[in-house]
Amino acid sequence: MAFATDGQYEPMRKLVFQQGDLDDLAVRMEGVEGALPRRINADPEGVEQGLAKLVLTLIELLRELLERQAIKRIESGAVSDEEIERLGTTFQKLQARMQELKRIFSLKDEDLNLDLGPLGDLL
């Protein structure tokens, strides 16, 4: 797609479309239209559950990362017995709260695992 400018170079210059470019864009948009849903699902319950799924997935990912980091620190001897106890209690409380939230939003562990295509699963 070729664009012509209005002549003067400015940091925020206006783009002037040529008629052929607009026709090409219209044809491309018709191809995309079939792939998009006709209506947006604005069901409040569906939106709430989708948001809960996203947030809980991020929390679970962070929990796993923090747990792995804690294990490395424990194995290296950089953590006292008191800190190990606090870490264990914290992770247990977080796990219990996650279970409660998954129950509230009718989510299962596998619902929080995103497929990243060639990279594999997130969790």
Description:
- The protein has 123 residues and is mainly α.
- The protein folds into 2 domains: 3-33, no CATH class; 44-119, no CATH class.
- It has helices at 19-33, 44-76, 81-104; strands at residues 3-5, 15-17.
- It has a two-stranded antiparallel ribbon.
- α2 (44-76) runs antiparallel to α3 (81-104).
- The two termini are 41 Å apart.
Biggest sheet, strands in spatial order? 1-2
Structural category is mainly alpha
**Low-confidence regions:** 1-15
Number of strands: 2
Rg over C-alpha atoms, rounded to the nearest angstrom: 25 Å
The total tally of domains equals 2
Quickly count the helices.
3
Residue share in helix:
55-70%
Tertiary shape: elongated
Q: What's the helix-strand series?
A: EEHHH
The major sheet is characterized as: 2 strands, antiparallel
Distance between the termini: 41 Å
Q: Mean of residue pLDDT? A: 76
Strand percentage lies at under 5%
Overview features:
3 helices, elongated, two-stranded antiparallel sheet, 2 domains, mainly alpha, 123 residues
Please describe the topology of this protein.
Elements: E1 3-5, E2 15-17, H1 19-33, H2 44-76, H3 81-104
Antiparallel strand pairs: 1-2
Helix pairs in contact: 2-3
